[in-house]
Amino acid sequence: MKVAVVRTVVFLGVVYFxxxxxxxxxxxxxxxxxxxxxxxxxxxxxxxxxxxxHILYERARxxxxxxxxxxxASSAAALGAFGLAVAANVYTYTVGAREHALALALSLAIxxxxxxxxxxxxxxxxxxxxxxxxxxxxFGGARVDD
Length: 146
Prior knowledge:
4 helices, globular, mainly alpha, 82% helix
């Protein structure tokens, strides 16, 4: 991978991690269940915007293929999930709650995989739809023929 690609994937992985931690903290301090759910939905929405922007960047600016776009976008999402799994493990050990230690240890592998696979499929479909729409001239420009 090129340095710029790695930099982008790592940066966006950190963005996903920060969104998860910050919005999770807000959700944890919410006064009601509705407030907690609203903060979680806000985290999902912001992560979705970041994910979509990454796909558009890869296709329009970096000119990556749909498969490469999906690989890069899902890698960033998986990196964010790995960061959240690390944070969950650190938190558990700092507060002394060890009853789920094995599950949390497994989360270091499971969360990134569980995130990367559907993210890859979603990014691949989005990149293919973007290409299809671009070829049809759906963005106000001239029709692009291969």
